[in-house]
Design goal:
15 strands
């Protein structure tokens, strides 16, 4: 028997090798692959009063990454703070911004040249924040017609091409209205088939898919490989089907997140648009506690 075998036999007999059986499972848990993200729109009331302190509070809860909203392109500000100063304060908090929701919808009828000028502003702001994604988050109700969805796909492709050339990526975020039936046609199908997968990625709002789509999140991801690079994770009230804190709702996220394909996923954001049990800051607190305990292991 060589020295190494002798040493191993000694350690085994002395019980050193069996110490692992006494250690808590948490010692061996794998570090999450993704940063725990927060869509800052969830705490928009607090952000309006003090954005930096609000993000600092979220950071203390374990949120490491965020998705912004409300960029003022003409003044180059986020929440009234110049983008460079905002970035500096984010760095001090060790908090990243991987994506932003930008106000493209209000410019839907603008000439393409004017829309492109706004896109360039968004690129400049995102570049300063070191964000990877610029996201189209919403289409106002007056534009939600089949004809406008067809017009939208052209805009999405052109914006995506412009953003890609700048070294970033572009994505479209769904709500419920994309799944509305218009005499056999559906806006989301038009977006899926009419946009270039290389130019326009998709941000899946899992709540709205569960709420309004006939297909499950897993089915949509399987049918559209390479596209769903971001997720919004929020729960659904068991009675009203409104938003709810994570763990209080009806969506079986344990089953969903443990089994769903994650190959294309790059970022996810916990979100609650309203219907808070107490208030928005308590909501992100309760959701963070539940998420870290029950769901983060799957991501």
């Amino acid at each position: 028997m060589n020295n190494q075998s002798t040493r191993r036999t000694f350690l085994k007999q002395s019980g050193v090798l069996s110490v692992s059986s006494l250690l808590p499972l948490s010692v061996f848990e794998i570090k999450p692959r993704f940063k725990m993200g927060l869509q800052l729109f969830t705490i928009r009331d607090a952000m309006a009063k003090d954005p930096i302190e609000s993000i600092k509070y979220a950071r203390g809860l374990g949120y490491e990454d965020g998705e912004i909203y409300g960029y003022d392109g003409d003044n180059d500000t986020y929440y009234g703070i110049k983008s460079k100063e905002f970035k500096k304060q984010l760095e001090d908090l060790d908090f990243t911004i991987s994506s932003g929701h930008y106000d493209f919808s209000s410019r839907f009828n603008d000439p393409m040249e004017k829309l492109e000028r706004y896109v360039d502003q968004c690129i400049e702001g995102s570049y300063i924040l070191n964000s990877k994604f610029i996201t189209w988050p919403w289409l106002a109700p007056e534009f939600c017609t089949i004809e406008n969805f067809k017009i939208l796909t052209d805009k999405l492709n052109r914006i995506g091409e412009r953003i890609n050339k700048a070294g970033m990526q572009f994505a479209y975020h769904n709500h419920d209205f994309e799944f509305t039936d218009h005499n056999g046609e559906q806006g989301y199908n038009i977006i899926l088939s009419g946009t270039d997968p290389n130019l326009v990625k998709l941000q899946m709002d899992m709540y709205w898919v569960e709420h309004s789509s006939k297909k499950s999140p897993a089915e949509l991801i399987a049918e559209n490989p390479g596209r769903y690079v971001m997720w919004h994770i929020k729960d659904m009230d068991k009675v009203t089907r409104d938003y709810s804190e994570m763990g209080n709702g009806s969506i079986d996220y344990k089953n969903l997140l443990s089994s769903i394909e994650k190959e294309d996923l790059q970022y996810y954001y916990i979100e609650q648009g309203g219907n808070f049990a107490v208030n928005s800051m308590q909501s992100i607190t309760d959701s963070a506690i539940y998420f870290k305990k029950h769901l983060q292991r799957y991501l």
